Amino acid sequence: MWSLSVPFLFLLTFGQTKTVTYDFNLTWVTANPDGLAERKVIGVNGQWPIPVIEVSKGDRLVVNMYNGLETHNSSIHFHGLYQNGTTSMDGPSMVNQCPVVPGASITYNFTLEQTGTYWYHCHTDWCYPDGQRQALIVHDNNTYFDFDDEYTITMSDWYHKLTEDIRPEFMSLYNPTGAEPLPQAFLVNDTQNTKFPVEAGKTYMLRFINIGAFVAQYLYIEDHTMRIVEIDGVYVDETTAEVLYIAVGQCYSVLVTMKNSTEKNYPMVTIADSVLLDTIPSDLTLNHTNWLEYNTNAGYAQATLEIDVSSELEAFDDMSLVSYDHETLLPEPDIQVKLTVLMDNLINGKGYAFLNKISYTSPKVPTLYTALSAGELANNATVYGEYTHPVVLDHNAVVEVVLENQDTGSHPFHLHGHAFQLVTRYPSYGADFYDYSAGTTFATYNSSNETITSNFPTYPARRDTLVLPPGGYFVIRFVADNPGVWFFHCHIDWHLAQGLAMTFVEAPMVLQQRLTVPDDHWEVCRAASVPDVGNAAANTVDYLDLKGQNTQPAWLPAGFTARGIVALVFSCISAVAGMASITM
Ligand SMILES: *[C@@H]1O[C@H](CO)[C@@H](O)[C@H](O)[C@H]1NC(C)=O
Ligand SMILES: *[C@@H]1O[C@H](CO)[C@@H](O)[C@H](O)[C@H]1NC(C)=O
Ligand SMILES: *[C@@H]1O[C@H](CO)[C@@H](O)[C@H](O)[C@H]1NC(C)=O
Ligand SMILES: *[C@@H]1O[C@H](CO)[C@@H](O)[C@H](O)[C@H]1NC(C)=O
Ligand SMILES: *[C@@H]1O[C@H](CO)[C@@H](O)[C@H](O)[C@H]1NC(C)=O
Ligand SMILES: *[C@@H]1O[C@H](CO)[C@@H](O)[C@H](O)[C@H]1NC(C)=O
Ligand SMILES: *[C@@H]1O[C@H](CO)[C@@H](O)[C@H](O)[C@H]1NC(C)=O
Ligand SMILES: *[C@@H]1O[C@H](CO)[C@@H](O)[C@H](O)[C@H]1NC(C)=O
Ligand SMILES: *[C@@H]1O[C@H](CO)[C@@H](O)[C@H](O)[C@H]1NC(C)=O
Ligand SMILES: *[C@@H]1O[C@H](CO)[C@@H](O)[C@H](O)[C@H]1NC(C)=O
Ligand SMILES: *[C@@H]1O[C@H](CO)[C@@H](O)[C@H](O)[C@H]1NC(C)=O
Ligand SMILES: [Cu+2]
């Protein structure tokens, strides 16, 4: 039943649509994509990079995943797919399913109602930076634009250490400021110096996806103009752009028409956003040249940048895009969810991330299974536990989320189950957009300020991952027309691990009527010894009694700061060192 060599794929045709089946056996393999260090990565059927999933609209996708990792739990999230009616197939462990433990397997099975550029990745604690992430393309035979050929082009940061070795250093008393782990390299198509063969005069659709853990990247192609046609699976009116800024979790599809001359190969340049990096190690190359290869005899010159890579580039602003279907701005919301982003230390001295002072902490029962087992109490957010930060949404409510950033870093927030309208953002685009200057007060959104509301777009852009600017705010809207449990979180995997997440529980009564979870998903819970009924504390008797729920660590006593902790840590170290020298 399980294929042992290359990704095995069989197709059953039912008229126009078909079932596309992938059998994935996850095992550790070694890889050295930057040529600097061989490391262990999560492979599929003995291979890495893992396969690009390619399907067409209307197809049924079946992924049978066996966890052969022996030491790590896993799962798969299909990033950008709404899973409309199939929320149990969404993938995040302890949100929509139990973690798949070593030796267990799970089947994801759903139909593709969307088209476009997506990706898939492990969505269990600290897992996809170890390599379990790849593109997922839903082909569309009816695009509104024409092109001759296409390339899927992933980009990512790359770490030489396993996340299990990064974790204790990052979430540590010795890293109280929460400085993010620095990558050792950057990859394009899971390698470097990639050459994309092109034919003169033809128009290519280039699908860019940032599948990294942390760092956003700028991208441009020398002497070629890009025409954006899709963002995160949503078609937009064709719009030209010279430079893209692609945060982790974001996708851009562009059309590029090739020159008629084949005299030269042209650099496609990626530049990591160094503003995100705490320090820039001298041996970390931020800019990389790949090529549109017109002519294999023409030579491959490295791009010469006219800018300093450690400063920001002026990139295209996604707020100015118009969705191709011209969906109009949603009306005044039925519910406004206001979320303040904050990074701070808790009593253990480690750095955490918060939305309204809650650092997301996994419940004892996956939130979806609480919603399914709580009866009418599923409408009461209490049952999901305080630290999953649940917000229950009425069916078809217009939801407005206001994100206010009290952090000096930018955060790429991703919503599962929906694309949202980009309503307004502060600051507007400018050269210092991603470079928060200390001392400025954090911006707050005022919904009664007509200078702001009168400038809302008529046909807002929609996407599933936004970039929340440092110290600024972002306002988005969507309709709760997809009953399910949907995670909303920063896509910087290190920040997610610090708790920068919350949960929408959408129309739980409708969900209970409509959803049937397949047996093998319940078996995943049994294999992991994770309860699959009860509230967040696994209480099946009194759903409103949360005694025993998982909690975030306590707050620091008032007056303590990260600087104080460092001082405390070092005085403790010297005290211990002193004791050590005495006892010697
Ligand atoms: C997965 O791959 C490993 C390594 O090749 C193999 O030992 C194991 O039997 C495979 N498991 C399944 C279920 O295919
Ligand atoms: C896998 O998940 C189970 C259930 O949450 C947990 O008990 C176990 O420690 C996890 N294993 C690893 C290696 O993280
Ligand atoms: C996938 O789901 C469909 C519809 O529920 C079902 O008919 C089919 O048997 C399932 N396939 C697998 C492999 O589970
Ligand atoms: C779209 O085109 C591809 C390739 O020509 C074909 O395999 C597929 O069946 C088509 N899909 C639909 C829904 O027409
Ligand atoms: C991109 O990587 C895949 C392997 O994952 C490889 O098959 C393909 O040829 C690469 N594309 C280019 C243009 O190098
Ligand atoms: C390439 O040649 C075609 C046909 O002669 C012409 O229409 C087109 O404008 C040329 N493209 C460029 C970029 O010069
Ligand atoms: C990076 O940019 C510098 C400055 O323009 C250039 O000298 C170098 O060749 C570039 N490296 C790559 C790999 O593009
Ligand atoms: C949810 O339950 C709590 C605890 O019993 C109660 O105080 C609260 O009013 C309930 N909320 C709703 C919306 O019913
Ligand atoms: C309304 O918003 C504009 C633009 O951000 C700002 O300049 C102005 O001061 C605000 N007015 C009030 C009364 O807050
Ligand atoms: C919000 O805007 C309204 C209308 O301009 C203004 O009256 C009010 O003072 C503003 N509130 C804050 C907190 O700035
Ligand atoms: C989900 O499907 C329903 C129809 O069943 C539709 O009304 C709704 O817009 C869809 N929502 C999303 C997010 O796809
Ligand atoms: Cu973040």
UniProtKB/TrEMBL annotation:
Show where the Plastocyanin-like domain sits: 26-142, 149-296, 360-508
- One GO BP annotation of this record: reductive iron assimilation
Concerning Pfam families, the annotation shows: Cu-oxidase, Cu-oxidase_2, Cu-oxidase_3
> Which InterPro entries does the UniProt record give?
Cu-oxidase-like_N (IPR011707), Cu-oxidase_2nd (IPR001117), Cu-oxidase_C (IPR011706), Cu-oxidase_fam (IPR045087), Cu_oxidase_CS (IPR033138), Cu_oxidase_Cu_BS (IPR002355), Cupredoxin (IPR008972), CuRO_2_Fet3-like (IPR044130)
| Superkingdom of origin organism | Eukaryota
Signal peptide position in this chain?
Answer: 1-19
A cellular component term, taken from the record's GO annotations: high-affinity iron permease complex
Does the UniProt entry include the keyword Cell membrane? no
Query: Which Gene3D superfamilies does the record match to this protein?
Result: Cupredoxins - blue copper proteins
**Keywords assigned by UniProt?**
Copper, Membrane, Metal-binding, Oxidoreductase, Signal, Transmembrane, Transmembrane helix
> Which regions span the lipid bilayer?
560-582
Q: Is the keyword RNA-binding assigned to this protein?
A: no
Q: Which terms in the Gene Ontology molecular function aspect does this entry carry?
A: copper ion binding; ferroxidase activity
Record-stated family: Belongs to the multicopper oxidase family.
Q: Spell out the protein name for this chain.
A: Ferro-O2-oxidoreductase
**Species whose genome carries this gene:** Penicillium malachiteum
